């Protein structure tokens, strides 16, 4: 990492007060997915990596302010990047990728970097990590198993069909299969139990 990226990492890490479903560990995984997918797809890393670092920086503020985290995060990223004199010609692409990353934002990712970030963020909601994050999220909102499984059906099982990149689609197939297998096992274990005859 270069010095500017190191400074961004420290700045973003400081914004996350608590771990959780959208804590800094999630940001780290999204960055690593962006590095891998972006390299394969030929993305501009000077846009993609800052966008990945800042994509959820405003998550901790969303409940307090009511401002969608993708909008506030884009604003915060632009402000910070200008404060460190990051090249201005990259900032619009970073802001767009952050604004378009959210599943429910309704903003279509129009650049390769925005598509890679969207894929990476969605991939981190799938597979084994996605399962763990879903139950953390349910607990954060005072919910239980039923709330978590509703989230699987409302969102996570739809993510496979929302991938923009070829490598994203390939990874999503594997992670989707893990979601389905987990839900099948959970369904088996939560149904009425029939004991074998002795």
TrEMBL record:
<dbReference type="InterPro" id="IPR003607">
    <property type="entry name" value="HD/PDEase_dom"/>
</dbReference>
<dbReference type="InterPro" id="IPR006674">
    <property type="entry name" value="HD_domain"/>
</dbReference>
<feature type="domain" description="HD">
    <location>
        <begin position="23"/>
        <end position="126"/>
    </location>
</feature>
<dbReference type="InterPro" id="IPR006675">
    <property type="entry name" value="HDIG_dom"/>
</dbReference>
<protein>
    <submittedName>
        <fullName>HD domain-containing protein</fullName>
    </submittedName>
</protein>
<dbReference type="Pfam" id="PF01966">
    <property type="entry name" value="HD"/>
</dbReference>
């Amino acid at each position: 990492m270069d010095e500017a990226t190191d400074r961004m990492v420290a700045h973003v890490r400081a914004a996350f007060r608590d771990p959780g479903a959208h804590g800094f560990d999630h940001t780290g995984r999204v960055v690593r997915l962006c590095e891998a997918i972006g390299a394969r797809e030929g993305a501009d890393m000077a846009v993609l990596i800052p966008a990945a670092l800042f994509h959820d920086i405003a998550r901790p503020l969303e409940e307090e302010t009511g401002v969608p985290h993708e909008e506030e995060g884009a604003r915060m990223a632009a402000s910070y990047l200008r404060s460190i004199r990051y090249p201005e010609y990259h900032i619009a692409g970073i802001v767009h990728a952050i604004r378009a990353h959210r599943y429910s934002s309704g903003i279509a990712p129009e650049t390769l970097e925005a598509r890679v970030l969207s894929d990476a963020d969605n991939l981190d909601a799938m597979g084994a990590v996605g399962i763990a994050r879903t139950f953390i999220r349910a607990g954060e909102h005072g919910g239980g198993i039923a709330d978590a499984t509703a989230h699987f059906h409302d969102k996570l099982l739809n993510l496979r069909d929302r991938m923009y990149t070829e490598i994203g689609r390939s990874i999503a197939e594997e992670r989707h299969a893990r979601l389905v297998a987990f839900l099948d096992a959970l369904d088996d274990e939560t149904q009425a139990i029939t004991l074998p005859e002795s």
